[in-house]
Amino acid sequence: MQDENIPIWLPRLALYGGPRFLQIADALQAAVADGSLKPGDRLPPQRQLAAQLDVDLTTVTRAYDEARRRNLLEGRGARGTYVAAPKVELTSVLDLSMNTPPPPQGVDFDDLLKQGLSQVLMGADTELLMTYHLAGGSDSDLKAGAKWLEPMFGHPDPRQLVVCPGAQAAIAALILALTEPGDVILAEPATYPGLCAAASQFGRRIVAVEADQHGMVPDMLEEACRQHKPGLVYLNPTLQNPTAITMPERRRKELASIAKRCAVPIIEDDPYWLLAEAPPPPIATFAPEQVYYISTLSKCLTPGLRVAFVLLRDPQERERFLVALRSFALMVAPLTAALATQWILDGSANRLMEGIRNEARLRHRMARDILAGRYSGAGDGLHVWLELPAYWRSSQLARAADSEGIAVTPAEAFATGSVSVNAIRISLGSIKDRGRLQAGLQRLSHLLARRPESFGAGVV
């Protein structure tokens, strides 16, 4: 039973409510937010609180450390620990423009990182972690890649995988390996900007193929293949960036059939598959010899790992791909590859991903409530594609939002040709603090409700 002398701001610790130190830190944050705790209030000594809660001292120490990390507390030496004054933000920009995973709900990322690195350093030869690796991944890395891809493909052969320093490097290497200068790459009208950047640098040309509410239109793809004789087709079929469309299974089968009939390879860039609710099988399952499948850890775990897995069925194609990759990105950093492998094989990656998935869905619910009738997200993934009222143009709204301290991405950034839709992409994971995200979405909602003519030019 919880001691009656326990501070009123601290709830009863739940047995299945996640790590207890996070429950304490969350209670502190909630108490500061609702005014139960005010700047300057002194907190109980750690040993006293540990005894009152019947937890060990380490739990309370970790809770206070986490609260300090959130800028909630400050230590004053022998005088104790106090509620901190609100931190003054040196920048007021609320970044809704970068697709990164949100902080994982119920998971101590810092602790997970420390434990993972400790396990890597205890079990690995440090010389091997600091030298060149040219084979596209060690046996352990490839085994981890096969386990990462099990939800999509069952039990893929590790020998058909390559470990890459991120999906962008994989896309660039595939373009180099599969196409020649001047070749056409077919993509949807709104697509991942990294594809366009790589194609432009390598002298390839992007041609847009019409898409509907289910993704690229099969008849239009077949017509474009006849007309342009493309070097490859690029698809991002699950929670597509930027439209958040998940292509249904029937559409995937149709596109795979056309690619086989027209003998054109497909790059299937699938960073969000593991975040989606019951996604269809990858296109690569319907045309395994035709499709080069990319799965990155950047969107499901953390961008800092810079690890992606590419599935290539043909040994000769694998070697061509490695040659292209080494021309600009010699290898994945061995230490981060080893950490990714450790996390995948010991189950930490799944725990982290589940926490990110839960937090992302909570943030989607927040966006749906705040943006009301304008919200058109899928309820999962990292972003929302928001079609705008007719009185706003996407680039115009992005500039107006920027002037109010909100960063969003206009449709122009994703266009493979002329801009075909008036929309912005809102990324829900790049703002760590949920309260600041809520404030950003509310400010954006108010901005959307106002007409551009209400903004006058300031004179300073």
From TrEMBL:
Keyword annotations from UniProtKB, A to Z: Aminotransferase, DNA-binding, Pyridoxal phosphate, Transcription, Transcription regulation, Transferase
Gene3D superfamilies: Type I PLP-dependent aspartate aminotransferase-like (Major domain), Winged helix-like DNA-binding domain superfamily/Winged helix DNA-binding domain
SMART domains the record matches: HTH_GNTR
Record-linked InterPro entries: Aminotransferase_I/II_large, HTH_trans_reg/aminotransferase, PyrdxlP-dep_Trfase, PyrdxlP-dep_Trfase_major, Tscrpt_reg_HTH_GntR, WH-like_DNA-bd_sf, WH_DNA-bd_sf
Molecular function per GO: DNA binding; DNA-binding transcription factor activity; pyridoxal phosphate binding; transaminase activity
Protein name from the UniProt record: PLP-dependent aminotransferase family protein
Domain HTH gntR-type, first and last residues per copy: 18-86
Organism (species): Duganella callida
Pfam family, one: GntR
Membrane-traversing stretches: none
Similarity annotation: In the C-terminal section; belongs to the class-I pyridoxal-phosphate-dependent aminotransferase family.
SUPFAM superfamilies associated with the record: PLP-dependent transferases, Winged helix' DNA-binding domain
Keyword Ribonucleoprotein: no
